[in-house]
């Protein structure tokens, strides 16, 4: 579902540069604005799994860890 985004209080110089850039690309200022946002956000990748895992290891480094095989054995023994 398309939405609207209103950007207020832009400098006149910035608006002028946007219009010039849009004209260079054969687009309206609004279409150029959409393209700039699309490109900026497309290049911003999601969080890297390895970085997230390293962060989690740092957060839990001081906590006591129970090996999974111990947890599995306890679970089986409860049956």
UniProtKB/TrEMBL annotation:
UniProt entry tagged with the keyword Amino-acid biosynthesis: no
Origin organism lineage: Bacteria, Pseudomonadati, Pseudomonadota, Alphaproteobacteria, Hyphomicrobiales
Alphabetized SUPFAM superfamilies for the sequence: Ribbon-helix-helix
Keyword annotations of the record: Plasmid
A Pfam family that the UniProt record links to this protein: FitA-like_RHH
UniProt record, GO biological process: regulation of DNA-templated transcription
Protein name listed in UniProt: Antitoxin FitA-like ribbon-helix-helix domain-containing protein
Organism: Rhizobium meliloti (strain 1021)
Family matches, as InterPro entries: Arc_rbn_hlx_hlx (IPR013321), FitA-like_RHH (IPR053853), Ribbon_hlx_hlx (IPR010985)
Antitoxin FitA-like ribbon-helix-helix domain sequence ranges: 4-41
Regions crossing the membrane: none
Taxonomic superkingdom: Bacteria
């Amino acid at each position: 579902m398309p939405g609207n985004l209103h950007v207020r209080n832009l400098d006149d110089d910035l608006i002028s540069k946007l219009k010039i850039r849009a004209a260079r690309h054969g687009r309206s200022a609004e279409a150029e604005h959409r393209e700039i946002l699309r490109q900026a956000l497309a290049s911003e990748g999601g969080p890297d799994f390895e970085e997230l895992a390293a962060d989690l290891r740092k957060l839990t480094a001081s906590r006591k860890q129970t090996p999974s095989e111990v947890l599995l054995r306890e679970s089986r023994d409860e049956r």
